[in-house]
Amino acid sequence: MKNAYHNDIMSMLIRCGSDGMNVRQLSRHLYNLHCGIFSVDVVYERLYNQVRSYLWYQSRQRHSPFVRLRWGQYGIKQDIAVQMDLFIDIPHEEERTARVVKRDESRQLLLFDC
After folding, report:
1. 56 three-class SS
2. Hey, which end of the chain has fewer CB within 10 Å, N or C?
3. What is the CB neighbour count within 10 angstroms for residue 102?
4. H helical segments located in the chain
5. Is 101 exposed, middle or buried (0-12, 13-18, 19+ CB in 10 A)?
6. How far is Cα 27 from Cα 44, in angstroms, rounded to an integer?
7. Over the stretch 32-72, which tens digit does the pLDDT of each residue have?
8. Backbone conformation region of residue 22, classed left if phi is above 0, alpha if psi is from -120 to 50, else beta
9. Is the Cα dihedral 76, 77, 82, 83 positive or negative?
């Protein structure tokens, strides 16, 4: 089961920590993020039902990052949040080699060296 708001839900629940967040509050935040003057396709009731059913289904799965804390309140499993925090800031091998500063030795600059 895939959800269009999965990344937003993950980021909000990570910020909440071990306390988690109520589905109603989570839906309000998502609605405020995706609702605007020109977007009329976001309906709060539909969004609320979608988030509620998605989190309920995912919390019952064994390998899901979501856990049900109380009735209507969900959070992120502690192992998942720690793993995500550890690997987000590690640069790739290509980024490490790209940071080497190259000296510019063009001929125009050498003409003005006295």
Report:
1. helix
2. C
3. 5
4. 6-16, 23-34, 44-60, 78-88, 93-98, 107-111
5. exposed
6. 8
7. 888 877 767 778 889 899 999 999 998 888 888 888 988 88
8. beta
9. negative
Locate 98 and state its tokens: 């790209």
Q: d(Cα 35, Cα 72) in Å, to the nearest integer?
A: 23
Lowest pLDDT segment from 5-9, 25-29, 86-90: 86-90
Residue-level pLDDT at 107? 55
42 contacts 31 by C-beta, under 8 angstroms: yes
Contact between 69 and 75 (Cβ < 8 Å): yes
Q: Looking at residue 24, what is its pLDDT?
A: 92
Residue labelled with tokens 């396709």: 41
Q: Are 35 and 29 in contact (CB under 8 A)?
A: no
